[in-house]
Write a structure and sequence with these properties.
abc type-2 transporter like fold; about 375 residues
Length: about 375
C-alpha cells in the first residue's frame, strides 16, 4: 500500500513536470547554456596579448627577435615609434605590455653576448601579468637558442629545467574549469529543482490537499525527491558528454565512480533544496535563497576558480560546509588524474555527512500541518 502511494505521488510529480516546462529547462537547458558560456567564454589562459614594441635602432638582430614574437600564438604585437606613445597606449588599454629594445641592444649582444630587454607589464590583473612575463621569458630563451644554433655557438645556461606536467600536460585551463563547472551546475540544478517544488505546492494551494491524505511525510518527500533526482542525473549525463565530446576534456577515471559520486552529491544538493522549500512558501523567495545559499558559496568557496589554500584560515574552515568543495575535487581528480581512491574516499565522506545532515533536517522540519 505504501509503495502504491509512493508511486502515485511520483506519477503526480511527473505530470507536474510535464505541465510546467521550467523544471525541464532547469535540468537540461540551464546546464547547456552555462557550459557553453563558461566553456567557451571563461579561460585562465592569456592569449592574443596586446604587445607594444618599441625599437630604438632597428637591425637584423632586432628584426629576428620581433619575428619570433610574431610567430608566437600568445602575442599580438604592434610597433610604436617611441616609448612615450607606447606608454600612452598602455594607459589607454590598447596594450597589455611594452617590449622596449634600446639603441644598444645589437651592440651589447655582439660585444658581451648579453643584451637586456625592457619589459613593462600592466599589473592590474596580477595573474595575466605573471603569464605575460613567463611567456616573454620563454620566447626570449627560445630565440637565444635559435640564434646560437644559427651562429654555431652554444647558449650557456646555469640550470636546465626538465619540466614534467602531470594530469593536464597541455596546460589548458578549460580542462581544469569544465569539470569544476559541472559541480556548480549540479548544485544549482539540485537546489533549484527541489526548492521550487514544495513552494509551488503552497502557492497553488495543492499542499493542503496532500496533507489530508493518509500519505506519510517521508512518502511526500520521496515522491518529490526521486523524479527530480532522475532529472538531475540526466543533466549530469548531458554535462559529462559535453565535457568529453564538445570541449575535449579527458575522462581518465571510471564512469561508475563518476556517476556514483554524482548521485551522492545530487542527493546532497536536493536535500539543500528541500530544506529551503520547507522553510520558504514562495517560489520567488525559495529561488533567491537557493541562489544565495548554494550557488554563490559553491562558485566562490569550492575551489572551482579560487584556490582554497590561498584563502584566510577562517574562510578555509568555512569551505568544509560547502558540499561543492568535495565534488569539485572528485570531478577534477576523476577527469584529469583517474580514480585516486584516497582523494575520492575522503571527499565522498564529506559529501555523505552533508547529505545525511540536509536530508535529516528536511525530514525533521517538514510537518503535515498548515502552521
Amino acid at each position: 500500500m505504501k509503495t502504491m502511494r509512493l508511486v502515485g505521488l511520483m506519477r503526480k510529480e511527473v505530470y507536474e513536470i510535464v505541465r510546467d516546462p521550467s523544471s525541464i529547462a532547469i535540468a537540461f537547458v540551464l546546464p547547456l547554456v552555462l557550459l557553453l558560456i563558461f566553456g567557451y567564454g571563461v579561460s585562465l589562459d592569456a592569449r592574443r596579448i596586446l604587445m607594444a614594441e618599441v625599437v630604438d635602432h632597428p637591425t637584423q638582430l632586432t628584426a629576428s627577435f620581433l619575428a619570433e614574437l610574431q610567430r608566437s600564438p600568445w602575442f599580438r604585437p604592434t610597433i610604436y615609434p617611441d616609448q612615450a606613445s607606447a606608454e600612452q597606449a598602455l594607459m589607454q588599454g590598447h596594450a597589455n605590455a611594452i617590449l622596449w629594445l634600446r639603441s644598444d641592444f645589437t651592440r651589447l649582444s655582439y660585444s658581451t653576448g648579453s643584451a637586456p630587454i625592457h619589459l613593462t607589464v600592466n599589473g592590474v590583473d596580477a595573474n595575466q601579468a605573471h603569464l605575460i612575463e613567463n611567456y616573454v621569458d620563454g620566447t626570449w630563451l627560445l630565440w637565444l637558442q635559435q640564434e646560437a644554433t644559427r651562429q654555431g655557438t652554444h647558449v650557456a645556461t646555469p640550470v636546465m629545467a626538465d619540466a614534467r606536467v602531470w594530469f593536464n600536460p597541455a596546460l589548458r585551463s578549460r580542462d581544469y574549469l569544465v569539470p569544476g563547472l559541472i559541480a556548480i551546475i549540479m548544485t544549482l540544478i539540485g537546489a533549484l529543482l527541489t526548492a521550487l517544488v514544495v513552494a509551488r505546492e503552497w502557492e497553488r494551494g495543492t499542499m493542503e490537499g496532500i496533507m489530508v491524505t493518509p500519505v506519510a511525510r517521508t512518502e511526500i518527500l520521496l515522491g518529490k525527491l526521486i523524479p527530480y533526482f532522475a532529472m538531475g542525473m540526466g543533466g549530469m549525463m548531458m554535462s559529462t558528454a559535453m565535457a568529453v565530446f564538445l570541449f575535449g576534456v579527458p575522462l581518465r577515471g571510471s564512469l561508475l565512480v563518476l556517476f556514483g559520486t554524482a548521485a551522492l552529491f545530487l542527493l546532497t544538493a536536493l536535500g539543500m533544496g528541500l530544506v529551503i522549500s520547507v522553510l520558504a512558501r514562495s517560489q520567488f523567495v525559495a529561488a533567491m535563497i537557493a541562489i544565495v545559499t548554494t550557488f554563490l558559496p559553491a562558485f566562490i568557496l569550492s575551489g572551482f576558480i579560487f584556490d582554497i589554500r590561498s584563502m584566510p584560515q577562517i574562510i578555509q574552515l568555512l569551505t568544509h560546509i560547502v558540499a561543492a568543495r568535495y565534488f569539485v575535487t572528485i570531478l577534477q581528480s576523476t577527469f584529469l588524474a583517474g580514480d585516486v581512491w584516497p582523494v575520492l574516499l575522503r571527499n565522498m565522506f564529506g559529501m555523505g555527512v552533508l547529505c545525511a545532515f540536509f536530508l535529516g533536517i528536511a525530514l525533521l522540519r517538514f510537518r503535515k500541518r498548515l502552521d
